[in-house]
């Protein structure tokens, strides 16, 4: 009897420990309990009858200001928090740096709206207008590369340079990735766990996994413990549909601003990769080829390629990336 009670007590203790561990790891879906490295402000946005908040950081140069600004657009699975080293490198060289969390991401509102790269570009233009910035260098990573491209197409007079770091959308995913509805994708997103996030990051983003990358996993995986995670998952599905249905690949020829591509050659990112067979995966998402093809489409574009690097050069090879970025600016 005593052994049985002891066993029950131990099981209860383990369950309680797990619950506390999960509670400790839990993040709100607007990342209130994630500390950004610089003060966060909020830009008001009204759309579809909803009053929303767009989070952003506006960081002044730490050395003699050069009068120039760089805007950083994050990728789909990230927010402004992963730009720390880039911000430091730029501000130390005299640049003002503006880092928005797009609506639906990071600390910004998680709204049920029609997600559109055109609308996002317009919100970012309005933010720059409010901050008194008439011209800026636009650096976009991953999904942020699609947004940066759309921004440069809509506002060439505002875009000093277009800087694309392993942007997605270099292929039209509709041509080879099977269509899934937003509702179907929502069911897939609901299955996300911190373990599945870690596995995806290890297999998709980096050539060699390092312990420091766990901080990225903790943010993306921490929200899965939140009671509001279904809302977060729905937004993730809606923005997946945005990427799938709103390609920019056919408009690279129309870009009229100086453009530089920064390409980790080992990147194999495909939006909807899990919907493809291994044979299909092997012939798409080849950034060592796609980078050159894209540079050839953009008038006067330059390309800087990184060997032994995957989807996020600014994290995987921070020194090499920042040297290339500063040289391009």
UniProtKB/TrEMBL annotation:
Listed Gene3D superfamilies: alpha/beta hydrolase
InterPro entries tied to this protein: AB_hydrolase_1 (IPR000073), AB_hydrolase_fold (IPR029058), AB_hydrolase_sf (IPR050266), Epox_hydrolase-like (IPR000639)
Superkingdom, taxonomy of origin: Bacteria
Keyword hit for Signal: yes
Keyword Membrane applies: no
Keyword field: Signal
All copies of domain AB hydrolase-1, residue ranges: 69-316
Transmembrane segments: none
GO CC annotations on file: membrane
GO molecular function: monoacylglycerol lipase activity
Biological-process GO terms, alphabetical: acylglycerol catabolic process
Signal peptide: 1-23
Name by which UniProt lists this protein: Pimeloyl-ACP methyl ester carboxylesterase
Species assigned in the record: Pedobacter metabolipauper
